[in-house]
Amino acid sequence: MTKSAKITLIKLLIVLLLSGSMLMLPFEEWGVPINTIQTRVIALFVFAALMWILEVIPIWTTSVLVITLTLLCMSNTSLKIMETQRYDSAAISAIVADAYGPAANADTVKATQTAVLAGLKKQTSLSPDFVRTTINNAILAPVVAGKADDAAKAELKAAAAKLYDGELSKKINDLELVSVAKQKSVFGTFADPIIILFLGGFFLADAATKYRLDINLARVLLKPFGTNPKYVLLGLMTVTAIFSMFMSNTATAAMMLALLTPVLALFKPEDRGRAAFALCIPIGANVGGIGTPIGTPPNAIALKYMQDLGLDVTFGKWMMFGIPFVIIMLLVAWFLLLKMFPISQPNLNLAKELKGKFLTTPKAIIVYITFIITILMWVIPKDYHGLDSNSVAIIPIVVFSVTGVITKKDLNGMAWDVLWLVAGGFALGVALSETNLAKDMINAIPFGEWNSTALLIGASCICLFMATFMSHTATAALLVPILGGVAGAMMAAGSMDSPGAVALLVTVAFASSLGMALPISTPPNAMAYATGHIEQKGMAVSGTILCLLGLAITIFMMVGLGAIGFFG
Predict the structure, then answer these.
(1) pTM for the whole thing?
(2) Helices (H), 122-228
(3) CB-CB contact of 505 with 487 (8 Å)
(4) What is the CA radius of gyration of the chain?
(5) Which residues touch 450 (CB under 8 Å, ≥6 apart)?
(6) What is the H or E stretch that residue 453 is in?
(7) What is the pLDDT of residues 409-437, one digit of tens each?
(8) Of 227, 232, 290, 558, whose CB has the highest number of CB atoms within 10 Å?
(9) Any idea where the domains of the chain sit in the sequence?
């Protein structure tokens, strides 16, 4: 066995040991009301976190594994050996019999008990109120159907009334009920509206690259920055950030570093400006992705949970606070890079190095028009055209598919692993919510007494720390479902308003993307480090400063926007 295989095996054993131990913990003895299915969800959460952190297997495959385990072990289509007792059928049958009383017809009681148990077995979510309603409906079924005479109707109504008061009501409320995840909800994570939004972004990015829209735009956008290396540096960061708003951060960084390679060769060996130019690309890519909901997966994950909470954050509204943040961060980063890595090179004419012209073929024109229409419809409020951001994303998908702009070969080359990674995070959210684990854990914590600003700061700091050492998407996929539930609970308790909930989820999304202090923090960092022009110390110092400043700016901005009523 090779050394690499041994390390992988050790990592896997650690994951299995720690996640498996969750199944053995005595939650009941600790006063935490966790049922069997919810214990499995906790174990799955720990399993996913460790697998994403240690990267035992590619992170997108961990997401597929998460979805599979959710289906097999904690859904309404679980394996037979994984099915668990979801309610005490004997206790429910006894409640039905007590409601009728000893003088009732035995066949009537038996028929009602059978109907109630059959009705409960089909449900994925159970609660005392639902059990009471199911029994009530089964008792009154003959009355509704008109199959009972007046005396029988009176008897049945009296039996149903007993369910809502006294001893029977207490027995129903004391029932231990176990909810499971819906199969449709788990499978639905693969085609969640946010997944389609991202896919639309992939179509736009691939079409732009295929028809050289990206290179030509880069040439046009870099011209105003002249030949002064200081301003060329700012121009490179700006162009990278703009592309990163609509393209994969990784793809953007790869493209821009390829354009920059011949330029870096012009620098003298002792010129520290090379490091500034090499670092400006990952910084621009990481920061630029924050500007739009499709710029980076953490944004899309946060947007989904805001939509689930009924919070009004559209594509255009996100850009209204996202792009100013990007501009501020780019200027801060530019100033920092110039101070840390002074440039000796007298001039650079980067725009001249990018040769070519805009294509005028029919398909290229289709790309230009579709790109403009899609962006405009994303930016213009829904009230004017009726489509939300997710539905608008269908436009480039269908136009490019029908016209042959994107072919089968192009489709096969898209970053499906990113979509599946995001879907795995959504599946964790489904497991947390539909098994009622999030609700039960949140109810056990007095969030109503918490200060929303303190929660925002604490959660964002934890998120930033995690994102420095693991995938940004995985970080958001782990934290956003929990914090979405926390926000919902605090809103219900009156200790957080809608702007506070938006601020919490947006800040966590931003913090996920700001983790860029190390080469392992994000693929653009790794690619820039691989050029050999950057020392890890320089990346760590500049990245840490930008992380902390970016987080402080985010918190200040979110609190300020909430105070002026920007989020309604």
Answers:
(1) 0.75
(2) 128-144, 150-161, 166-173, 183-188, 193-210, 213-222
(3) yes
(4) 28
(5) 490, 495
(6) helix 452-469
(7) 999 988 788 788 788 888 888 888 888 88
(8) 290
(9) 89-173, 190-296+314-414
